[in-house]
Amino acid sequence: MNNTIYTVNRDKQEILMWINNSINPNKNIPANFYDSYSIFVTNNGDIYYDTGGKNGRVDKWISNTDTFVPVMNDNSGSYGLFIDINNTLYCSIYSNHKIVKRCLNDSEMISTTAAGAGIRGSTSNELWNPMGIFVDINFDLYVADCFNHRIQLFKSGELNGTTIVGKGSSNNIISLTYPSGIVLDADKYLFIVDRDNHRIIRSGSNDIRCIIGCDKTGSQSHQLSMPTTLSFDSYGNIFITDGLNNRIQKFDFLSNSCGSTINENILLRELQNGPGPKTKIVS
Known about the structure:
Layout: E1 4-9, E2 14-19, E3 27-30, E4 39-41, E5 47-50, E6 57-62, E7 67-73, E8 78-83, E9 88-93, E10 98-103, E11 112-115, E12 130-135, E13 141-145, E14 150-154, E15 162-166, E16 179-184, E17 190-194, E18 199-203, E19 208-212, E20 227-232, E21 238-242, E22 247-256, E23 259-271, E24 281-282
């Protein structure tokens, strides 16, 4: 967001910010959470984060006043947060196998089910340990259905999903193993964190392929080890939480006459004091 990277430091219970390619954090915000897994930053700089399973809620840090308010009770801990263009907050409840949502314009903290039956399963209306989520401008919900090794698409208002990538999809060219993160870009390309295969997959209407970490796991600049989340900055560069390497990797976006590509061999910036294996980043 505004070319600033935000991450939760689970060990020290704080939110860290790197501004304009800084190597070291420029700001830290002490926060009350236990084992937080997810974060979402709005255009005005407000930060939403889950406070962990022990606290069982989502809190908001208000940037203008430097204050905290609770915004949703999740009773479990969230592995993914997203706010759509109608100011509706979506929360991926990992251990309860569902996605819940709440309109932030309403005064009461009442949430409803957006996807999942609340029990683990692999049918079209079920999820199994969902993680990353994304909601597009049509209010269609994309879910990294982690333990089902698939990406589910729930059309707006529908509780039955369609498998678009991974196990059970009609075009299962690439197999996923515990996918954990997902982002849809403006060109309708789907970027998937294929966690246990240590790679990033890009899926479009005409093709699906690996773009980062395509040879094997490792710690070299072009390799990943148990990545968990990804995010883009305004220039199209990709930031990846590289879990077991304890770092955040930045891969630059290259534009040329033959089209746009991701340079998967050059690491432009490795951020020091990186997050743990299951930390969310927003750039």
